[in-house]
Amino acid sequence: MTGTVTAGTVPEMAAGTAARGRISRRAGFWLLAGTLVAFMAAASTPSPLYVLYQQRWGFSAATLTAVFAVYALALLIALLTVGGLSDHVGRRPVLIAALLAEAGAMVAFLTADGVGPLLLARAVQGLATGAATGAISAGLVDLQPASRRVRQLGALVNSVAPTGGLAAGALGAGLFVRYTATPTTSVFVVLTAVFVLLAAAMALLPEPVALRPGRGRDALVSLRPRVAVPRPVRGAFAAAVPCLVATWALGGLYLSLGGSLTAGVLHVPDRLVGGLVVTALTAAGAVASLVVRDLPARRVMAGGSLVLAAGAGLTLAALAAASTPMFFAGTAVAGCGFGSAFLGAFRSLAALAGPAERAGMFASVYVVSYLAFSVPAVAAGIAVPSLGLRATAGVYGCAVVVLALLAAVLGLAQERAAARTA
């Protein structure tokens, strides 16, 4: 195939066949899904390693959360600048560049010998992930199979792949910690190879974005930092914000301080358990997303938010009682709420944006999500020395419960309003 096309406008593409030199739309969809899993796995891989880094270089809890948060800050910068770039220059070139940058970040992890290089590696990783996120999310909707049986598969994968990837990365890193002598290097050798191979494979991706006249000027304008929420979507977007904040704030707590909580509050010395905690949260989220995928989006968002609140409450009780089994149970319940609530919010917005607005709008979704993912975690790290780890987690968890309950109320109100107008 020469040139590019808009998804679904050419019979050959609609039929799912590959143009010359390109894989089919269906294969491209699953390539993007695998790429999203890989990015998210790499994002959670350092979590079980933070305790090792902390012991090796002797930095504080505040520094630990800063290392965690610099990733999210860099990701936000990328989302705000190049998050919608693929709407103008195409999905493929943006993704190839992002994958090569991610491979460079993995090499930076390999050679890190202190806090400074570790911060640099996380920053490059955040920039690469942010550049890829909008393009992947939009591409999954562009290339999803046009079958009634798999309707809204793009939104489902956009929800399941991040949680599944986070689970795989945390579990994999935990296994490297347990069973290899050099976990802080060997795991990144594997990830470097994965991202180089994905960059090569991305050259075969079908391009669903039609390149319009004046695209160069439009692409430059799109680099101006902004939150691109289309006007018809803004009401639904505002209603989804408490859900996005509650889900990702809880994820930020687990990915930044989960290992410290298991070691310092629950007194479990095994570092694999820190990875298993993150895995329990995110794997439960992926499973819950699959279970509720066919239910109405707003109902899923509201119900998932209620489950999230219940799980966060159970987790707080477990920390107060220093009960490891109860902690894992609360984590699993909260994970079910995490996955289903985010899926409901994402699906309710995905159906409202046009093809030329998707990458920008999805970037806006992730701007809110990653602000919630990083800012509270940094605040928690700063508070730990004065409040203590247990009390800090308690305040954090209570805030998540309040936000989740607000999200449930807004979701139910939206569903009732939609029913009255139907």
Radius of gyration based on Cα positions: 21 Å
Give the rounded overall mean pLDDT: 81
- Basic shape: globular
**SS class:** mainly alpha
Explained architecture:
With 422 residues, the protein is mainly α. The protein has 16 helices and no strands.
Keyphrases for this structure?
about 425 residues; mainly alpha; about 80% helix; globular; disordered N terminus
Topology of this protein?
Elements: H1 11-14, H2 25-44, H3 50-57, H4 61-82, H5 86-89, H6 91-111, H7 115-143, H8 153-179, H9 183-202, H10 215-222, H11 234-264, H12 271-291, H13 297-321, H14 324-350, H15 358-387, H16 389-421
Quick synopsis:
The radius of gyration is 21 Å and the shape is globular.
